[in-house]
Amino acid sequence: MKATVILFKPSGKYYTEEEWEIPAGAIGPYDMKDSPDFRRISGGAVLVDTQEPWGFPHLFPGVSA
How far is CA 53 from CA 2, 4, 7, 49, in A? Predict the structure, then answer.
């Protein structure tokens, strides 16, 4: 099963949308940090949007590179 995520540049501007594999045993969108597909664009934020199997979004804020 896959989830749609939105990647942002460090400036906060939209970069792209991707489909990432949902890791085994994931309970909420915050577990997408364990996805084998997890990546950031130069430390930018990652948004896991509201979708099945979760009914709420999760934002991984940007980090300093």
Answer: 10, 11, 20, 11
